[in-house]
């Protein structure tokens, strides 16, 4: 990538959705080409240091260490606008801490989006598991399900107040699991998923969140409860103790 692969995005509005999630609305020329109604679009963000107005300078030697990945929660191409829901996970990092302090008029750099490889059309029922970083992506998929869809969605959140409205068909039961310490193991989420009543037919499976949970379920849905590959999306969105470029390098290393 070079600087021409990035465009400025200006913060138009900020809203605290829940104690640990902030929605920022941006405008950018790239947003004119975002696809309305497309499932699971995500892009790379270059944010300035927390508290700075930006935009950050594009440095071809260091930008890869600063790039972070975010889901396009809503896109409004006609207005060149989009929303990103940022988890504010503490003082460490760039994007989360920046988002918490961001103000209208602040600027970041964004890439063009990519799309998740996940399809649900041929599924008979649906299973979702997401921590807060993956709620935006899971919510988009749930909103796109047909009205007759059935299944379960498990959301692991940091506090009771972090529940948020998620529009899903009536046949999808939403379960909220509170885990106040993001460093603690996800035992309750793992138990809950491994104990669900397995319905007839082929499920679609969406699991995204911390690395260790994604790794466990990648094996589980391959070996113990084999699911159709084309209906299964298991993805590590972040890793405890690693910044995003380290997490990416680690994933590449274990995949090699
Ligand atoms: C396809 C995809 C879509 C994503 N969509 C979203 C999204 O819409 N919203 C969103 O908030 N995140 C999303 N993420 C996750 C996000 O990219 C990471 O959380 C990223 O590391 C945040 O960057 P940072 O600069 O805040 O922290 P980093 O500098 O990467 O990390 C600093 C420290 O914070 C820890 N950390 C990072 N993320 C979290 C977290 N969520 N909870 C607790 N500790 C954390 C790290 O382990 C590290 O110790 C997505 C990831 C992927 C791969």
UniProtKB/TrEMBL annotation:
FAD-binding FR-type domain sequence ranges: 4-120
Entry superkingdom: Bacteria
InterPro entries listed in its UniProt record: FAD-bd_FR_type (IPR017927), FNR_nucleotide-bd (IPR039261), Riboflavin_synthase-like_b-brl (IPR017938), SIP_FAD-bd (IPR013113), SIP_fam (IPR039374), SIP_rossman_dom (IPR007037)
One GO MF term attached to the UniProt entry: oxidoreductase activity
Listed PANTHER family: FERRIC REDUCTASE, NADPH-DEPENDENT, NADPH-DEPENDENT FERRIC-CHELATE REDUCTASE
Family: Belongs to the SIP oxidoreductase family.
Protein name, entry field: FAD-binding FR-type domain-containing protein
